[in-house]
Each structure stands twice: as structure tokens, then as C-alpha cells.
Amino acid sequence: MSQSGISSIQISERGANKKVKFIVGGVLIVLAIAYLMYAGLQSNATYFMTVDELYAKGADVENRIVRVSGMIDEETIEFNNRDLILKFDVLGENGQALPVVFNGPKPDQMQAGTEAIIEGTYNGHSFEAQNLLLKCPSKYEGEPEEIELQAIDKSGQL
Amino acid sequence: MPNIGYVTLALAFMLSIYAFVVSLVGVWQRRPELLLSSRNATFGVAGFLTLSIAVIEYLLITGHYQTKYVHDVSNLAAPLFYRMTALWGGQDGSLLFWAWLMALAAAAAIHAKWETMRPLIPYVIAVSQFTVTFFIGLVIFIANPFEQLPFFPLDGQGLNPLLRHFGMIIHPPMLYIGFVAFVVPFAFGMAALITRQTGDTWIRTTRRWTLIAWMFLSIGLLLGGWWAYDVLGWGGYWGWDPVENASLIPWLVATPFLHSVMMQENRGMLKRWNMALIIMTFCLVIEGTFLTRSGMLSSVHSFAESAIGPLFLIFITIVFAGAFYLFVTRWDDLSSDNELDSLISRESFFLLNNLLFIGLAVIVWWGTHYPLITEAIGDEKIVVGPPFFEQTTAPLWAALVLLMGVAPLLPWRRTSLKRARQAFTWPTIVALITMGALVALRITIWGAVLGFGLCAFTLTTIVVEYWRGVRVRHHRGESYPVALKNLIARNRRRYGGYMIHLGVILIAIGVIGSQFYQTETQQNIAVGESMEIHSDMFGTYTMTYQGLQEGDSPDDRLITEAYLTVSYNGETIGELVPVREYFVVQQQPMTIPDKMVIPLLSDLYVILGGWEGSGETATFKAYINPLVNWLWVGGFVFIAGTMVAAWPTPEPKRRTSKAKVSAGSVAVG
Questions:
Q1: Which residue out of B263, B364, B373, B382 would a mutagenesis test of the A interface target, given it has the greatest number of A Cβ atoms within 10 Å?
Q2: How does pLDDT run across A142-156, given as a tens digit for each residue?
Q3: Which residue of A has its CA nearest to B364?
Q4: I need a surface site. Which of B152, B223, B500, B502 has the fewest CB within 10 A?
Q5: Which of B38-42, B110-114, B170-174 has the highest mean pLDDT?
Q6: What's the CATH fold of domain B517-629?
């Protein structure tokens, strides 16, 4: 600490200059973080909509990753257990059906009154789901029980 | 019996209001007898709530199913342990538990600091009892666990099966303790603002409280990850779920607080910043609780939507507005004693650390609330998933790992570039060698190589720090183990801190390995057939399906076990038995993974996805999770380090060790 006598005089002369450096540095870092966040939102934002909203948007959302919620139509469930291909329809509020294809196991919880939240892409005819989340009516404090499944990643690698 | 519980609740409620009012009246009218009375009232609040807890526990243990809460979360088949822990298995009970813990924390702090902190105590009582009143009020008026059913059920519904896991049993109380204990530094901070005693007294007084609150929060987060990995069966430990984030965000603000208080203690700087951080931490704790409880965001943890939401919003607004008002009106009292000296100093790296942590907190907060924000302004609900959080936060985590290596080696005030260069020569060399070795081992994802390199750098600086201290003592004639022990004992805060950093690095290694190199596969196979899983890092495992076995368990579970033999390079190395349990009463299935742990390297993790008929064919999902067990090891080191740093030191000893610290830092500077 003995050298501080001389250098503190130098420091005080350069004080204003230094303050500017700190502020500039801080602002740069804040901007960098803001940019990271902006870029992250641009590439990862996913619309969360109902079946009706999906049809209303039509071509706008085709081939973009979206999240859709709707009731599962039990009558339409088909499952090929050898290749793990699950097909079912989810229904919109007005009864419009959206055919869904999910490449993965069939969850036990697909029963009457199950709401599904599917994440994937709509190609104009059917919805290819990468994630399937089921909300089942549960007794626990009215809390819906949720089951989440991921489709098989065909490359086998993440 | 339930009536006794309710009455004690009501008494606690009235007493907490009394303590709040009387502490303020006492200080304004300068009447010490009123202050004494309000202090005793806070003890009374804690006492009456303890009685309520005793009553609800009695009802749970004896199976009083007419009490709605007991009926909802417990049943006859439940063993004693689950009956007792069902206290926090549902909304009403856990809120009461929360209020009780907070009342205890407040009473303990007020008791401990009554003599030494006289001027601050009245306001500490007022602020803490205001908060406690709110929570007891919620329990009494909205979430009453003593509510009776109009009929007499013979049995209850039982605890949610997902919660029947040791990690899940202790995860909530750890988080709760972490959350509620922040009321103490917050209350002292507010008291310091009100009395304009804005030096470092409030920080020194509450340093250990903050550290302990932070430790419990950390334990809660770690246990949550462990539970998710062990029980939930999706192969991961952190899902960026809104409720997980709700407990991470306060942690992200409390962590820089723990660092920057050192600047206030040592240099009298950052007073405004520290005050802002503790206000934010506490508000985020309350907001996190609100998110968890109100059902605003869909999550695996969500409680039912309830009337609690709006009340919480009002409460947060009052707390925040009050704190903000005090903060602004005391702005000038919080001015800094010192200026920053140099860009290359510990101070400026602490600032950078603070900036990065707050950046992380903002990112996680924003991503978590994005659906709410977009729905409120644009009428469109937009969500962001784990990739958003991973991509956006990864560079900041990496920068923090680097800072952890750099900052502790830099002296306070300033240093020369030359000296800085000297300090970092070895760590840089080790990092470069590590990265070269990894590339030679065909680890070529650049993010992973860079990440491991940063870990190697910081790990080396930590080892060097310990080594330097131990060597000096060894020269004075202490044997190495004794030297290490004394080194830590004489300066717990510093070397405990390094231990925490060490734990973080180990956790980081686990995260990097499992994030970049996890492989997964899913297949439907018949008995006798095999499936393969390949990892570039660890080769190929072959699993052969041997068949399915079903059985009952005493507490109404149907247990289905699948048997798989595992071979590696053609050699059989063991058996895996993933399980599917079906809770008959609750009609809820639960998938329990099985894993083969290769210590320090990887986990082979298998889930039974489903089966056809009596198990002729079955679907399995398998993961290779490289380095994931470093996370748990790192977690232990992390918590051990926090305990070392927070361990109480007897008074006289502390004075000498403090003298040593300042002597030490002068020597370094």
C-alpha cells in the first residue's frame, strides 16, 4: 500500500476519464446481454394457441414451431406399437378437429376429458408433434396432472 | 381438536398485528415498555403458530379425515413419515408451514439481536410482522387447513404419488426455509433505511442470516434437480419450468448480494446497489411464491387456481412500493465512501459479477413471464422453451465461471497488469492443455471444449489459492493436513467461499457433459430382442429385454418391473430394472427410471415407456447422461463450503481472524 500516495494523485487526475471507462464498459455489457435476450426471443418464441386460432392463422404458421392446446378426441386414437406412431385428433372450441401425428409411446393417461398441449409443426394437413403434454383431471386439489412426452429423435443424437 | 388449531391461528394473527402496531407506536413515543411488549408478541406469534402446527400434525398422524386437508393429502395406508410430511403436501398446509417458519425466523433474529441492535429492532419487528400477518391472514381467510367436511370419510385420498420420494419430501421445506429467512436481511435493510443507519451495520448483522437463507435455497434447488432426475423420468434435472425458475430468480439476485456486501464492508461502496438487491430478492421471493400458488403459469408444480392470486399482488405492491419509497428518500444517505480505483481490481470484477448475475435474473424472469407479458399487450400468447434459456444464459454462465477464477486472485483497489499476468500464467496453461487433450480425445463440440477449458482455468486458480496458504503454514512447521485444517478454520469465510466455487465448477462440469453429450433412443422390443444406445464419448451399450413381472405392494400399488440385461462391447455388465408403479387409489401411474452409474463418467438411464398384453413387447427409452453424477458431488461440496463459511465463530476468535483478513489483503495488495 506504500505506493498509493503517488498513484492516488495520478488516479484523481484521471478520475473522470476512468469513470467514463467504467460506464462505457457497463453499457457495453448491458447491451450485449440485451442482444442475447433479443436474439434468443427471435429464434425461440413459440405461439401458444387453440386449434381455432391455428386454423384462423392458416398459412402464417405453417411449418413454424407452435404450441397448440385442445381436447383429445378419443374415438380417433390409433397406435402402431411396433413403430411407435400415435395418431389422434384434438378438437377446437367449435369442434374443429386437428389431426396429430406423434412419433412416440402412447401415454396411459389418454382418456376422456384429457386436454393435450402439443408442440410441433403444422404442414397444412396434419400436425407433427415433437412434444406432447397431457393435462388430466386429477383429484389433487383440483390440480391438473401433467404428463410430458417427447417424440423420438430420428437421428438418435441430440 | 381442529378448533384449537383454528383458535391458535387466530390468536397468532391478532398478536402479529399487535406486534406490528405497538412496535411502531413504541418507537415514535419512545416508550421502551411498548417495544418490550411487541418483542414478546413476536415470540407469542411463533408460539401460537407452533401450536397450530402441532394440532395439524396430530390430525394428520391420527387420521382425522373429517378435516378436509387431512382427507386431501393423507390416507390410512400412508406410513407415519408420509403422514407427517403431508403437512406441506398441499396448498393450505404448506402455507401454514410457511407462515410458521417465517414467524420462527423473525422471532429468532429479534431474540438474537435484541441487545446489540436496539435502534433497528422496532422496525425489524414491524416489517417482519407485517409480512407474517399477511401469510397468517391467507391461511385463516383463504387456505384454512382446519376446514371440516360436512361428512365423515373413513379414509383419505393420500399424498400425491409423485411427492413420495425422499428428495421431494425435503425439497419444499428447504426452499421454504431459504425463502422465509430472507425476511430477516430485508427487515434489517428496511430498518437501516428508516433510521438512516446506512453503513454496514445491517449487513454485518445479517450476513450469516443471508448466507444461511441462501444455503437453504441452494439445497432446495439441488434437491429439486435430484428429484426430477431420479423420479420424474425424463432424463434431465432442470426443465426451466416456471416454478423452478421462480426459485432460481431470487437465488440469482441473492448471489450477487452476497458478493457485493463484501465491497460495502471493505470499501464502503455499493450501498445503494446492495439495498436494491436485498429489496429485489425479497420481492422476487414473494413474487415467486405468488407464481407458484396462483396457477398463473402452467407448470408441473402448479397448485390449483385460487383467490390467493390477487391478494398476493396487492401484498407485493405494498412491499415494493414501501421499500422503493424508502430507497428513494434515503438516496443521499446511501452514497459511496470510496470511488473505484482501477479497472483491474477486485472491485471492478465484483461489479462485473453483479452485472452478469442480474443479467441472468432478468433473462430468466423475462422468459418465465413472457406468456403473461405477450398476452397482456398483444393478445397473443407466446412461450419460450428450454432452448431459449439455454442459449441465452450459456454465455453468461461461462463468463461467471471465468470470473470465479479471476476475481479472487486480484487484490482490492488495483494491481499492475504484470502482476495480474503472473497470477494467471499457470491457470491459463492448464486450461490450454485441458482443451488440447479434449480435442485429442475427439471432444470437438467447441462449446463443450471451451466450457471445460474455463472450468480447468478456475479449478487451477482455486487449487493454487489453497496451495499457497497451505505451503506458508507448512513452512512454519505444520503438517499438510493440519495446515489445511487451520487455513480453513482461521478464515472460514474466504476458504469456505472457495469451496463453494469448487462445488460450482464440479456442477458446471456435470452440466456441460450432460448438456452437450446426452444421447437418447426409444424403441419397442419383444422379449429376447435387443436395443442399442450409442455415445461418442462412451461407446455402445446393448440392452436385451428379458420380460416383465407384475406384483402388488402393501400400500395399494401395482408394480410392474421390466428386466433388461446390459452388455458393453459384447460383455454382460449388469441388469437394469425400470419400474412402472400404478397407484390404485389415486389412479395414477408413476414411471421410475433405473440407472447404471459409472462413477464420474456417465449414467445409463432407462425408462419403461409402456407394454402390450402381458409384456410380450415393451417400449423403452434410454439415455446416456455423461458426467451427470458430477452434479451431485459438486452439490455436496457446494453445500459443505457454505456451511464452512456460515459456521459461527466464537466472538474473540472472530476478531483475530478479521485482523488477519485485513492484514492478509494488505499483504496481497
A1: B382
A2: 444 556 666 665 443
A3: A37
A4: B152
A5: B38-42
A6: Tick-borne Encephalitis virus Glycoprotein; domain 1 (2.60.98)
